[in-house]
């Protein structure tokens, strides 16, 4: 369930990012802010909240998604089991990733592939994307290429989210819903 929530949050952020790129295709160029001279770790970003998420000092949105999903998939052993190496290894073998690898490898693969592809694209382009989208001299073909790539990676995230939702509903049915009065 936590993995689905993580994917859902990323889909929401991805949809907002894609909307900014689509608006740029329509001629609405987003304003950007430059690096803050008082904070050397701040980079060029949109003034929009979505892109400020990706520039936190803790690494950014993409890095946060990777940390969260690795934590959920890797289930770190309880502190009392980490004292002995044999208990630690045994607990590590009971991770969600290993369970998914056994019971639903296609869901795990679609999740990992979708997250990796979106992350790779964002990490490659997040430094120069705000300036390119806000610059009126950027050719529309370049913005269209960005839009196409972002839509493809968003569709992969949506597919992975739906596959995970279907698995959760199948494995943990809640029974019939009560009739509304």
What does this structure look like?
This protein has 181 residues and is mostly helical. It has helices at residues 2-25, 49-53, 61-74, 85-92, 96-103, 105-125, 129-134, 140-171; strands at residues 32-33, 45-46. It has a two-stranded antiparallel sheet. The chain is globular and about 60 Å long. The two termini are 29 Å apart. The relative contact order is 0.16. The model is unreliable at 36-42 and 48-58 (pLDDT under 50).
Quick structural summary:
The protein is built from eight helices and two strands. It is mainly alpha-helical and 181 residues long.
Q: Tell me, what's the shape?
A: globular
Count the DSSP helices: 8
Helix-residue proportion = 55-70%
**Major sheet: size, sense and barrel closure?**
2 strands, antiparallel
Please give the order of strands in the largest beta sheet.
Answer: 1-2
Secondary structure tally: strands:
2
Structural class of the helices, strands and pairings?
mainly alpha
Unreliable residue stretches: 36-42, 48-58
What series of H and E elements makes up the topology? HEEHHHHHHH
Radius of gyration: 20 Å
Oligomer: single chain
User: Average pLDDT, to the nearest integer?
Assistant: 79
> How much of the polypeptide forms β-strand, as a percent range?
under 5%
What's the N-to-C terminus distance? 29 Å
Please tag this protein with its features.
globular, single chain, mainly alpha
